[in-house]
């Protein structure tokens, strides 16, 4: 099972950010990784905002991204996913969650 700090409190975002922020440094050298993470972030935003009629995206809410992350982590646990040395779909998606947290200041006090 994939466990991150604060997951017991219902918020895995702190652990995801701690684990995946170092991968953001790869953006400078790996444009393919940047593109993959950007596509994942766009899909996450679309999923979280699909229920509204707004033409302009509204601010991302911590609770929504937390719920999404919990569901994604549950799905990874169900299939017995282990983090690879390189990149795969799950690493790209978790890095996108981390990137969205940073971009939106979701862990700022």
UniProtKB/TrEMBL annotation:
**One Pfam family in the UniProt entry:** DUF6401
> This protein's superkingdom?
Bacteria
Supply the name of the protein: DUF6401 family natural product biosynthesis protein
